[in-house]
Amino acid sequence: MGGRAGFQAVGRLVAGLSERLRGWWRSRRVRRLVLFLSIVGPGLVTANADNDAGGIATYATVGAHYGYDLLWALILITISLAVIQEMAARMGAVTGRGLADLIREEFGVKWAFVAMSTLLIANLAVTASEFAGMAAALEIFHLSRYLTVPLMALLIWWAVVARSYRGLERIFLVLSLSFLTYIVSGFLCKPDWSEVVRHVFIPTFRLEPDFLLLFVAMVGTTITPWMQFYLQASVVDKGLGTQDLKYERWDVLLGSLWSDLVAFFIIVSAAGTLFARGVRIETAGDVAAALEPLAGRYAAVLFAVGLFGASALAAAILPLSTAYAISEAFGFERSVDRSWREAPVFFGLFTAILGSGALLTLFPGLSLVKVMLFAQNVNGFLLPIILVFMLKLVNNRRLMGEHVNGPLYNLVVWATALFIIALTVLLLWQALLPGFPALSL
Predict the structure, then answer these.
(1) Is the CB of residue 327 less than 8 Å from the CB of residue 112?
(2) Which of 70, 103, 68 is nearest to 88 (CA)?
(3) Is residue 425 part of a domain?
(4) Bigger pLDDT: 359 vs 241
(5) Cα–Cα distance measured from residue 154 to residue 354, given in angstroms and rounded to the nearest whole number
(6) Could you give the C-alpha distances from 230 to 100, 123, 211, 234, 278, in angstroms and in order?
(7) Would the pTM count as exceeding 0.85?
(8) What CATH code is carried by the domain that includes residue 392?
(9) DSSP string computed for 10-69
């Protein structure tokens, strides 16, 4: 009898727990969390991929040259990034079409051709810089780029061609975890946190060419044209609609906050070590090498691991974003869920850009620093044009219905576009007037 009573007690306990679990599962908050987790991805992946080798080098240069002086600018940049990314996600969810597709339909094939040609040139150069970032990170561990670059190119190609969008997104999200290393590295560098907080909330501005140009670089490396094409295409590819907008907005907001939090710690790491000792850098790999004697082996290794993960993520995203955009612009089938036979142009473009970027990295005598700077300049020229296209599209009630921009959104995006145009003029001024001091990285 005692044994039977014990079994009955255990049965009642299990039944009670099961009922509680069913009640927990049926609760509104849990259902919302599960729905959000099923939607999260496009915004987080896109924002993280933007912290690539060029971005890491830019943020590290900001910290190495000016310490904590530009930390306050990250707040403004984060607001602009979140607003612009939300616009792209909203257009994808409402229209069910990518940005390149909408540009072709609303503005004509000529404008689409101009946008796609520039995007192709810029993204090819940036893809090369991502392989340079991976090579620099692995060279910290004494691995030759002539071995690692071809191997990584094959692995990335296989991961994209052989998997569905959902599976590929999971890989991208796992790679995004590599950015945690920058946060740890920032603490290992032991910065003066009182100075850090002061510069976050009290702006410092200098009317110096180097300072202004690094400000431009921060904006240009955080908000890039390819991001808008990739994010909108991935929202469409994932099948998100207007019913998912609430959760996709959270995805975009969290992605923007996380991306610029990583940027914050990269600046802090460089400012707390390199700036104080006057160390100059040229590439993101130089930062990892310089950190070892200043902040210890662990800080250098963590920085290198983060650089590798960031570069691998962006090396997959950049060719994908270009393939999506060009295929959309000219009406070709595009989706990683398709087979090569169903979308030959899409996969062919992806393969060609990925392979060319890897080969450029291995070309003897080519300055990878110049490749990255060229890509950033092209992106800087293209971004205001893309933002104007986006503003015209997102404010078109025929396309967007009730989901058009509000006045505040339009103000933020126009301010961002005009700011970049003004500072792009400054870049031209620097190039055309020999007496104007140049930025030395």
Answers:
(1) no
(2) 103
(3) yes
(4) 359
(5) 9
(6) 10, 12, 31, 6, 38
(7) no
(8) 1.20.1740.10
(9) HHHHHHHHHHHHHHHHHSHHHHHHHHHHHH-SHHHHHHHHTS-HHHHHHHHHHHHHHTTT
Whether pLDDT at 437 is above 60: no
Residues 58-99 pLDDT 10s: 888 888 888 899 999 998 888 888 888 888 889 988 998 888
The two tokens of residue 259 are 């991306």
**Rounded CA separation 231/46 (Å):** 6
Taking alpha carbons only, the member of 261, 289, 263, 317 closest to residue 126 is: 317
Give the residue numbers spanning the domain of 86: 32-432
Residues 93 and 216: their CA atoms lie apart, in Å, by 31
pLDDT tens figures, 225-240: 778 888 888 788 777 7
Which residue carries 């999506």 as its tokens? 324
Using alpha carbons, select from 321, 318, 319, 252 the residue that is nearest to residue 99. Answer: 321
Distance CA 142, CA 55 (A): 24
Reference 354, options 402, 395, 393, 322; nearest CA is 322
- For 246, the token pair is 């609430």
Greatest extent of the chain over all pairs of C-alpha atoms, in Å: 99
Q: How far apart are CA 142 and CA 309, in angstroms?
A: 17
Using the structure block, give the residue that is written with the tokens 């020229």.
381
Give the DSSP letter string of 316-343: HHHHHHHHHHHHHHTT----TTS-TTT-
More confident position, 375 or 255 = 255
Q: Which ranges of 108-244 would DSSP assign to H, the alpha helix?
A: 109-139, 145-161, 165-176, 180-188, 193-201, 209-222, 225-237
Structure tokens at 373: 């700077």
Integer Cα distance of 310 and 53 in angstroms? 7
Three-class DSSP category at 386: helix
Q: How many domains does the chain have?
A: 1
> To which residue do tokens 């933007």 refer?
50
17: in domain: no
Six-digit token string for 341: 């036979």
How many angstroms separate the CA atoms of 60 and 54, rounded? 10
Does residue 156 form part of some domain? Answer: yes
5: in domain:
no
CA-CA distance, 435 to 441, in Å (whole number)?
A: 18
